[in-house]
Amino acid sequence: MSNGSNEEWLDANRALRMDANESIFPESRRQLHLDRYEFAAKYCTGKIVLDAACGTGYGSAILAKSAKHVTGIDIDEMTIEYARSKYGSDNTTFNVGCVELTEIQSDSIDVVVSFETVEHTLCPNSHMIEISRVLSPSGVAVLSVPNRWGLSDHHFWDFDVRMLQRILKGRFGRVDYYYNNSSNDNNRKKGIGPLNLEEADDAECLVAVCSDVNADHTGAHGYQSVLHEIYDGVFERHQEFLRLQSELKSDAHGFTRSIKKMIKRVIAR
């Protein structure tokens, strides 16, 4: 992409894709994302790093300042094209791929960074399985999730600290939790700091630093194409569900007609 087409693409996709270095996004939102990548960079000095769901690549570029090498993966081809065009470097590469099933060698990654990712997946445990598979025995995973934001057009899971603890349990011998807040509003402390689990519901986002990995080698790489097929249609189906749900609230008869139409379309496939 050229600079002009980069800007046009980013503006057209700003609901799901962001570049925290671009001023078209609110300052508080940009800083929230930059803070967590700067936090993760402390674990990456001289390391082989995977940025799982790297998005537009701005965070991978932050990690690459201290890392030996950073690989960023994202399921969206145009997003990877943007990342390569703007943030590719000698020690930073970007590839199209599913975070749940990568082509990365087992035990080969020193640090996995995966921010605001798992709530977008169809199966959170599958993402954790892959993280634990690719991490080296002494590796570290730095993860983040939005905290109690509710479901949305793009979030299939509504995380809180209890759900995050549940998917990490048994995979890591040690997990340290942090808050990640964009402001001091609502009794929150701006920035990133150690999380008091008794006050976890007040955090805007949650960050987990995970170590002492319990390696998992159950990945079946033959399912890569299956995962891509699932993702190709999942957002369309989700949007269709939301439209039908809205119709139910406003017109029960119209909802019934829409259900019949949807069933015909599914059968036709």
Detailed description of the structure:
By secondary structure, the chain is α/β, with parallel strands linked by helices. It folds into two domains: about 5-220, Rossmann fold (3-Layer(aba) Sandwich); about 225-269. It contains eight helices and eight strands; from the N terminus they run ααβαβαββαβαβββαα. Strands 3-2-1-4-5-8-6-7 form an eight-stranded mixed β-sheet, sandwiched between helices. Helix 3 (about 60-65) links the parallel strand 1 and strand 2. Helix 2 packs parallel to helix 3 and helix 7 (about 225-250) runs antiparallel to helix 8 (about 250-269). The relative contact order is 0.11.
**CATH architecture tag of the largest domain:** 3-Layer(aba) Sandwich
Element pattern in H and E: HHEHEHEEHEHEEEHH
Based on CA atoms alone, the radius of gyration comes out at 19 Å
- Tally of individual domains: 2
Low-confidence stretches: none
Q: Which structural class do you get from the secondary structure elements?
A: alpha/beta
Distance between the termini: 35 Å
Overall spatial form: globular
Topology:
Layout: H1 3-12, H2 27-41, E1 48-52, H3 58-64, E2 69-74, H4 77-87, E3 92-96, E4 109-115, H5 124-134, E5 135-146, H6 161-168, E6 172-181, E7 191-194, E8 205-213, H7 224-250, H8 252-268
Parallel strand pairs: 1-2, 1-4, 2-3, 4-5
Antiparallel strand pairs: 5-8, 6-7, 6-8
Helix pairs in contact: 2-3, 7-8
Keywords:
Methyltransf_11; Rossmann fold; SAM-dependent_MTases_sf; 22% strand; alpha/beta; 8 helices; 8-stranded mixed beta sheet; methyltransferase
